[in-house]
């Protein structure tokens, strides 16, 4: 039974799995005092003290203490669900490095907006979740989605989440609004402006990040890009190939005769 659970766990999308696991583990460790929760909250002032708490901009996106445990349940569910959608079913993120670059950009913009607007949110996870929801639903126009007991247009889900937070005691609509703005900024710079404004793609994945994250090897050609399989060639020593438009009788080599 445990082997099946572990196999199912490791079969889930890697980025969604790791983000959700880190969120659940850090929140539980902080809530039960294994790690002082004081060291997990984010505040910009901690970055300017000596020594600076450089981990706080990361842990701030991986905790859900407010209204525990309901916040953890809902946030973990939405984080995994929409991150998995982006990782496995969104054409805008064909490689894992593309999604990682998206997450880094969105989180950086949320941190910048939170500082410039003077909100000083201690927990930033709702902003990241809302950004993922917005990005995932942009390619679902015309489809319907279920939000609690209501059926709404898919692209309206992020706005329903913000409205629900505004009506709920202790909701976090402002950090969610920052996530919405960050996701729209990414959408504008990578899709709207290049496709409809005729401009260049301004947010390409940097080379240093591609060198860190493993991606399929590609072969550059004058007429496109071919992906090389990671495994060895399956062709036999006779030189025959298993695919192609020619009939099988044309692919095998005979004994051969000298001409002339």
UniProtKB/TrEMBL annotation:
Keywords: Endoplasmic reticulum, Membrane, Transmembrane, Transmembrane helix. Residues 220-260 are annotated as: Disordered. Residues 229-245 have a biased composition (Low complexity). Pfam families: DER1 (PF04511). It is a multi-pass membrane protein. GO terms for cellular component: endoplasmic reticulum membrane. The chain crosses the membrane at residues 20-41, 99-118, 147-169. The keyword Endoplasmic reticulum applies. Belongs to the derlin family. This is Derlin. It comes from Fusarium solani. The lineage of its organism: Eukaryota, Fungi, Dikarya, Ascomycota, Pezizomycotina.
């Amino acid at each position: 039974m445990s082997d099946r659970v572990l196999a199912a766990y490791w079969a889930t999308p890697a980025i969604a799995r790791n983000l959700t696991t880190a969120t659940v583990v850090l929140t539980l460790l902080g809530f039960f005092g294994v790690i002082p929760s004081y060291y997990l909250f984010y505040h910009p002032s901690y970055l300017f003290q000596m020594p600076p708490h450089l981990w706080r901009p990361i842990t701030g996106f991986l905790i859900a203490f407010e209204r525990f445990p309901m916040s953890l349940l809902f946030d973990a569910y939405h984080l995994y669900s929409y991150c998995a959608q982006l990782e496995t079913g969104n054409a805008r993120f064909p490689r894992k490095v593309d999604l990682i670059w998206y997450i880094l950009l969105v989180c950086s913009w949320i941190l910048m907006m939170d500082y410039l607007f003077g909100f000083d949110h201690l927990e930033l996870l709702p902003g990241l979740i809302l950004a993922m929801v917005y990005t995932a639903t942009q390619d679902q126009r015309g489809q319907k989605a279920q939000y609690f007991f209501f059926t709404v247009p898919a692209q309206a889900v992020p706005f329903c989440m913000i409205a629900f937070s505004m009506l709920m005691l202790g909701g976090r609509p402002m950090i969610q609004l920052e996530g919405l703005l960050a996701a729209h900024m990414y959408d504008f710079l990578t899709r709207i402006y290049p496709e409809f404004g005729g401009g260049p793609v301004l947010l390409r994945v940097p080379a240093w990040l591609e060198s860190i994250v493993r991606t399929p090897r590609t072969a550059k050609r004058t007429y496109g890009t071919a992906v090389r399989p990671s495994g060895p060639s399956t062709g036999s020593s006779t030189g025959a190939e298993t695919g192609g438009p020619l009939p099988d009788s044309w692919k095998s080599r005979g004994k051969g005769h000298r001409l002339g």
